[in-house]
Amino acid sequence: MSVSLEAGPRPLVMGVVNVTPDSFSDGGRWFDPADAIAHGEQLVAQGAQILDIGGESTRPGAERPSEEEEARRVVPVVRGLAPTGVTLSVDTMRASIAEAALEAGAHIINDVSAGLADAEMGPLAAATGVPYIAMHWRGHSADMQSRAVYGDVVAEVRTELEARLEELFAVGVRREQVILDPGYGFAKLAEHNWRLLAHLDDLVATGYPVLVGTSRKTFLGRLGRPDGAEPVPPAERDAATAATSMYAAQHGAWAVRVHDVAGTCAAFDVLDAIRAAG
Ligand code: PMM
Q: Which of 87, 95, 202, 256 is most deeply packed, by most CB within 10 A?
């Protein structure tokens, strides 16, 4: 793996490679493995330092694919992208899929459930020692939005993530492996996502590297729209995503997970130029 877990002045850019028929923003576009591999290569050419390969859509209401189907989607794409030399993460809640992906050349486990969905995930992360992204999660996508109930979302996300870490450490995961993610859009209403962004510093202050994944999420599509109106379509949310990525860069994020790699890199070039001129 060629990337560091130390947060630098400019966050790493993790490009999304969804091998799904139904992801909310790009479902079906790269469902064929050859298309997904070509898309990943294009994201690397645009400046992605990490590719996040996933075979399960986590959009609200989504049904899960079978384990066999998820493996069929993910493993050939990991194998096909390994020769690029770019750091690869596998976006899965299943330990068996993570294990197969690591064998095929992946370097990072991105588990949106932080070990809650599969009790074997913690032991696998411990045994392999690879970087492990632990995201705040309250349940599977089919009904997660019913769990978007918080008194103090910032404190609760942090406490629930800390509780997950205690369990992961108890099965042998090491502190140095962990990357935290507040889980924008997962069991969160728009107001929760905004508050978690406003208090991103609190999560960064834990000392763990922090991944920010706001890309094309619905709360960005609602900006500037009248109450009750449809949000703007996902593909038109990249400018707002670049703005949240820029904000994440100024608040110590380790990496941003984005669909629009070229736009994100352009935004970070702007930040670098401003800083260099200071
Ligand atoms: N969001 C999605 C999928 N995987 N992983 C992490 N760590 N953080 C996220 O915010 C995240 C994720 C859903 O977005 P997509 O359907 O566009 O991939």
A: 256
For residue 216, indicate whether it is catalytic: no
Taking the chain (278 residues) in runs of 10, the rounded mean pLDDT of each run is 89 96 69 93 98 90 90 97 97 98 98 98 98 96 87 98 98 98 96 98 98 97 92 96 98 98 98 96
59 contacts 217 by C-beta, under 8 angstroms: no
| Domains of the chain, each with CATH number or no CATH | 12-277 (3.20.20.20)
Amino acid at 129: G
Residue 167 and residue 189: Cα distance in Å, rounded?
Answer: 27
The residue contributing the CA closest to ligand 1 atom 9 is: 213
User: For residue 110, what are its two tokens?
Assistant: 């991105």
Residue from 72, 217, 225, 275 carrying the catalytic annotation: 217
CA dist 15 and 46 (Å) reads 10
Q: Which long-range contacts (CB under 8 A, 24 or more apart) does 8-11 make?
A: 9/249, 9/272, 9/275, 10/249, 10/268, 10/271, 10/272, 11/212, 11/245, 11/248, 11/249, 11/253, 11/254, 11/255, 11/256, 11/268
Q: Say how far apart CA 39 and CA 36 lie, in whole Å.
A: 5
Cβ-contact 136, 200 below 8 angstroms: no
Is the beta carbon of 254 within 6 A of some atom in ligand 1? no
Cα(94) to centroid(ligand 1), Å = 15
- Report the alpha-carbon distance of residue 26 to residue 156 in Å, rounded: 31
Alpha-carbon distance 56 to 23, whole Å? 8
pTM over cut 0.85: yes
Q: Is the CB of 184 under 6 A from ligand 1?
A: yes
The phi and psi torsions of 170 (rounded to 5 degrees) equal: -65, -25
